């Protein structure tokens, strides 16, 4: 089951409607979650996590 585009944002924004600042903060949040140890996963090496946006 796929969700409609924009359904992950409270105001149903998508594409260019999402500001660059929000995109940057989101990317930093995801990166931090990847490299931090969690109770359910070990930390991902920094270089591996940093390579994901380039994929």
Average of pLDDT: 84
Largest sheet: none
Helical segment count: 2
Beta-strand proportion: under 5%
Contiguous runs where pLDDT drops below 50 for at least 5 residues: none
Beginning-to-end CA distance, first to last residue: 24 Å
What order do the helices and strands follow? HH
The helicity comes to 40-55%
Q: What structural class do helix, strand and pairing data support?
A: mainly alpha
Q: Tell me the number of strands.
A: 0
Cα radius of gyration in angstroms: 14 Å
What is the general shape? elongated
If you had to describe this structure to a student in words, what would you say it looks like?
The protein is mainly alpha-helical and 55 residues long. It is built from two helices and no strands. The longest helix is centred in the middle third of the chain and has 16 residues. The chain is elongated and about 35 Å long.
Structural descriptors:
mainly alpha; elongated; 55 residues
What's the short story on this structure?
The chain is an all-alpha fold and 55 residues long. Helix content is 40%, strand content 0%. It has helices at residues 20-35, 46-51.
Secondary structure elements and pairings:
Layout: H1 20-35, H2 46-51
């Amino acid at each position: 089951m796929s969700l409609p585009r924009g359904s992950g944002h409270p105001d149903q924004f998508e594409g260019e409607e999402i500001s660059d600042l929000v995109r940057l903060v989101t990317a930093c949040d995801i990166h931090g979650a990847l490299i931090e140890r969690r109770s359910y996963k070990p930390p991902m090496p920094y270089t591996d996590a940093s390579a994901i946006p380039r994929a």
